[in-house]
Amino acid sequence: MVALHEWGHFSTARSYGWRVSHIEFWLFGGAVVSDEHSAKPFKEQVHVILSGPLQHVWIAVLLFLLQTFIGPHPLLDTAVHYNRIILLLNLLPIWPLDGGKLLFYVLTQLISFQKSIKATLWVSFSCILSTIVILLIEERMTLAGMLLAGFLVVENSLEWKRRTFTFMRFLMYGVRRDQEHLKVKYLSIDPNTPVRRVLKNVHANRRHLYILKRKPGLYIVDEQECLRMFIEQKKTSLRMGDLPKILH
């Protein structure tokens, strides 16, 4: 079941041309390893994530048909139970489960990319701790549950440490992404604002145009130019007021 679940992710990711390095199998599940998941269009991200849980739908139908034609059997009952457990567990809003990644992708459509990373991990940590407390109070915590909880805590801690790298990778993707279809938002900004601070506001589904007040009038700086200067030109100490002089 885990293999079929990961095959769903893998086949969909490859159909979109994602670079997939390998598939990992753990004691409690698996993962399709790709560094591109956070730097792809929203539609592709959602399709790749949902293609895993959707495998459990046809598995459930198959098991139901087998139970109908063969009759009750302990092996089929066990298969139904684990199919349900894997599906529900993966939909929890915990990173790096499918539910956690789906939460992250949805948040990127509502708030900035950097804030989405932090919000997702805070929700994920909260869900893990809440689940542990509930299981301990109800005396339902098992050895497998403790190992799984420990694994998720470690993964979330590592992702928190990697959040800057994840954000920088997204900025690199932003340099070459097609911005024509993105919704435009105008923002007035102080010319003394560092470009690196402005880029913290980058959204996955929005294009910002910054209005600089300077004599004798106004000047508009495209967010794309900020990205090029910061990523490609490596001018990390620039201020927004310096861009008009460089660009023209």
TrEMBL record:
The keyword Zinc applies. InterPro entries: Peptidase_M50 (IPR008915). GO terms for molecular function: peptidase activity. Its cofactor is Zn(2+). It is found in: Membrane. It is a multi-pass membrane protein. Keywords: Hydrolase, Membrane, Metal-binding, Metalloprotease, Protease, Transmembrane, Transmembrane helix, Zinc. The keyword Transmembrane applies. Residues 2-70, 75-117 form the Peptidase M50 domain. Pfam families: Peptidase_M50. The chain crosses the membrane at residues 48-70, 85-107, 119-137, 143-160. This is Site-2 protease family protein. It comes from Halobacillus naozhouensis.
